[in-house]
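Model it.
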Amino acid sequence: MLDLSNIPVIDQVGVEERIARLNSRSIKKESKLQGLHLALSMIDLTTLEGKDTAGKVRQMCYKAMHPADDIPGLPTVAAVCVYPNHVKTAKTALGNSGINVASVATAFPSGNSSLKVKLADTKLAIDNGADEIDMVISRGEFLSGNSKFVYDEIATIKEACGNARLKVIFETGELSTLDNIRLVSEIAMQAGADFIKTSTGKIQPAATMPVTLVMLHAIKDYHEKTGKMVGMKPAGGISTSKQALQYLVMLYETLGGAWMTNEWFRFGASSLANDILLQLHKEQSGVYYSGDYISKD
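Modeled.
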């Protein structure tokens, strides 16, 4: 049963001051190298375009398994994320690599469709072998104050996922306030979300550090109240290694070491992988590679 009593009010000034302190940090040498490897292992490599083809998906899967063969000891990414009709192609291409296949569903990215269509979308992805489902909430219903509708829809999709993990996308750029983001985080977690996720990547602003901090604190409060861990996925707008390391510091200082794995934290940022690889090449060779040496997929 949905219980929205005792939801804290967000101190926006306090959040911004906390982010300013986080952004003043500097990570050097061995800690930086470890952080870059960890960030790479947390990426959901993504292609979600109307022009996606089976060949493009296979190429992305190869990159997921072989980020840079000339750098020894690199991890693979955590998952690839595709539309439901490309899940089967991705599953075949990834084989027994251990990389998950995530699929967007529920009328992504708008979420403007019937529950019947959203369930069919989810079922298609699951039937094709998806390990994870990234659903979008009905933002119009939420902004109309219909929290129960949003809760029921998430719970229904969660049930349809079976053993697949469910990431719930808020599209925070459309939710206007940090208080709204705190409220929808609570709704999603009570409805059974395995992860809460900022954005589709189709709307700006997408992931930001203030929004992510509010969501991390919601996860912390929920864990303290229920004992249940919920994952976090900032998505969209994170493109540099420096940003990724700042997010990891924020994650560690807010939720602690238990969340510092790709089981509980993901980056939805394909371009981030390229910048991390360029930084790792620099750490290895002492010089920066051209971006032309890195696959754009």
